[in-house]
Amino acid sequence: PSPSAKTVISRALEHRPIHLCVCLSLLTVGAMNVSFVKTPQSLEAIEKSNPNVELGGQFHPSDCIPSQKVAIIVPFRHRDEHLKHWLYYLHPILQRQRVEYGVYIVNQFGEGVFNRAKLMNIGYVEALKDAPYDCFIFSDVDLVPMDDRNLYRCYDNPRHFSVAVDKFNFSLPYKECFGGVSGLTKKQFEKINGFPNNYWGWGGEDDDIYNRIRKVGMNISRPDMTIGRYRMIRHNRDAHNENNPFRSWQITKTAFTMWRDGINTLEYKLIKAERWPLYTKVIVEVGKRSPALPRG
């Protein structure tokens, strides 16, 4: 005779994980050798070595109950080789950390001036269309952690993960630094009105984000310098990502602009969202720089 519904449920419960995923998994290995000397593996090879990663770059631990649901958001354009390196290292790291996560590569369409912070805002919005994420980690595609004890999760305060990058001799460039890899809960992100949309080109947006965090009374949390170590993929500055000539002026105006420029004013055109085996690719048009920047 076929088993009763009660029996089926009972058996399912027997195989359901009953404990929370611990903050520091026994699977983590600590310091790692990270190198970009060799040509990165193909996406197919990376996919084959990560069989538990589901379509769209999703992973759900089967042996424990995660306390957070994490969206990893990567602003992107024309960095396909870097992305292969990043995926090769990050997927195994995140799985060892027993993180429930999804990877979102937010690709700026066209050849206009790059807008990193706006792409991160877009990633936040698009990820929430997929799932009820409560933690958002924003990462440059050229930064890979060198220690898997640097846990990609959210904390009581906004988190700056990449505190010791090899490019800066494994030291923090300045105390207000919030660039590279950072993380905020949904509540923290909404509290600062997200990120600015009006930083076009290279530089300034990270300092604006730091100012926003401090303006609402939050502090920055960081891992120990021995754990928050990163290897950067060396490269030339991208075309159409020239220095932002307004950045020094803009940073001084955060208190005025943060409620007029952020997630509440975000406008963009979604061209396509595609689920690839290792990530979800979000292709968007971000518009152009405003003819006149807001003045206080």
**Beta-strand fraction estimate:** 15-25%
- Estimated radius of gyration: 20 Å
Q: Could you name the ranges where pLDDT drops below 50 across 5 or more consecutive residues? A: 8-13
Annotated CATH architecture: Alpha-Beta Complex
Oligomer: single chain
What is the β-strand count?
11
Strand and helix order: HHEEHEHEEEEEHHEHHEE
- How far apart the termini lie comes to 77 Å
What general outline do the C-alpha atoms trace?
globular
CATH topology annotation: Spore Coat Polysaccharide Biosynthesis Protein SpsA, Chain A
Helix fraction by DSSP (H/I, runs of at least 4):
25-40%
State the CATH superfamily name: Spore Coat Polysaccharide Biosynthesis Protein SpsA, Chain A
The main sheet comes to:
8 strands, mixed
Tally the helices: what do you get? 8
InterPro entries: Galactosyl_T (IPR003859), Galactosyl_T_C (IPR027791), Galactosyl_T_N (IPR027995), Nucleotide-diphossugar_trans (IPR029044)
Organism: Petromyzon marinus (Sea lamprey)
Keywords: Disulfide bond, Glycoprotein, Glycosyltransferase, Manganese, Membrane, Metal-binding, Signal-anchor, Transferase, Transmembrane, Transmembrane helix
GO cellular component, one term: Golgi membrane
